[in-house]
Amino acid sequence: MDKNIQNLIGKAAQAIRGAQRVTAFSGAGISVESNIPPFRGKNGLWNKYDPKFLEINYFMLHPKESWELIKEIIYDFFGKAKPNSAHYALALMEKKGFLQAVITQNIDNLHQEAGSENVYEFHGTSQKLVCLDCGRSYLINDMSLEKLPLLCSKCGGLIKPDFIFFGEPIPEPAASRSFMEAELSDVFIVIGSTGEVAPASQIPHLAKNNGALIIEINTEESGFTHSITDIFLKGKATEMMTALVKELKL
Ligand code: NAD
Ligand code: ZN
Fold first, then answer.
1. Would the CB of 38 count as within 6 Å of ligand 1?
2. Which residues are catalytic?
3. Lowest CB count within 10 Å: 119, 173, 189, 242, which one?
């Protein structure tokens, strides 16, 4: 590894060791090495698909068309992904007391699969579904996606995945807990996030404004890099997180 990066990893580890509360904040970038493409950027899904099928109003007017794309993109494809070493490194840090929470924008459940326990899913989850009419909740593992759109067995209403669509509010209590963690943290690790998706992008700024040191891991510079990042670890999430837990001697 590059001497400069190794030096920065040493500084990051030192800050983490000296901190009372450390929080990680992950975006689509942490799951890229689990073969889940991001939405934005050169290999982003929005180059291939029109994001309108994830707009709440479009979904309600065209549930069959939207559901077929959701099945293809989110469930058939994301569904096969496994956690990578960056997800496992965060779970290990939590277990050893070096990390208090993970705030994720991802809906792929990979932090939980890797063993992270205190996870706030800012954009919801693909693992649960909800009836838009009566609010009944379903688990994806109990459902067949053969016949679409999915309809509620209790009231016949339209069932929607329990992650947020464009035009929907951030779910509670994930929203308020994420903002609270950001305020309390003294080290905040931003991993694989462009900083372009609001209001999630405000969370690292809130942490910084409340005195946190910002460590950022990304293969590219992001909206955070030149505004709030204190230690920029330019590289892949798996490589940087593996080096960090090694430096922490976990
Ligand atoms: P994003 O803000 O999540 O950005 C992805 C970032 O990851 C980019 O800055 C990119 O440079 C970086 N990156 C790419 N490969 C990386 C690697 N190997 N290591 C570290 N960083 C890497 O942007 P988005 O993809 O447009 O996502 C927007 C929102 O959509 C997310 O916040 C999330 O809610 C959702 N989303 C979720 C998933 C998922 O659940 N895995 C996938 C795509 C999008
Ligand atoms: Zn219902």
1. yes
2. 123
3. 173
Interval between CA 151 and ligand 2 midpoint (Å): 8
In tens, the pLDDT along 7-48 reads 999 999 999 999 999 999 999 999 999 999 888 877 788 888
Q: For the whole model, what pTM was predicted?
A: 0.96
Segment holding 5, helix H or strand E: helix 3-18
Q: Is the CB–ligand 1 distance for residue 23 below 6 Å?
A: no
Question: Is residue 116 within 8 Å of 24, Cβ to Cβ?
Answer: no
User: Residues 100, 182: contact at Cβ < 8 Å?
Assistant: no
Domains 1-36+83-123+170-250 and 39-80+125-163 belong to one CATH topology: no
What's the rounded Cα separation, in Å, for the pair 121 and 111?
Answer: 10
CA of 143 to the centre of ligand 2 (A): 14
Q: Are 129 and 149 in contact (CB under 8 A)?
A: no
> Does residue 56 contact residue 168 with C-beta atoms inside 8 Å?
yes
- Does domain 39-80+125-163 correspond to CATH entry 3.30.2320.30? no
121 C-beta closer than 6 A to ligand 1: no
Candidates 194, 217, 241: which one to mutate for ligand 1, based on the most atoms within 8 Å of Cβ?
Answer: 194
163-197 pLDDT, tens digit each: 999 999 999 999 999 999 999 999 999 999 999 98
Question: Pairing state of beta strands 124-131 and 137-139?
Answer: antiparallel
Least distant ligand from the CA of 204: 1
Query: Considering the domain 1-36+83-123+170-250, what is its CATH architecture?
Result: 3-Layer(aba) Sandwich (3.40)
For the chain, the domains span 1-36+83-123+170-250, 39-80+125-163
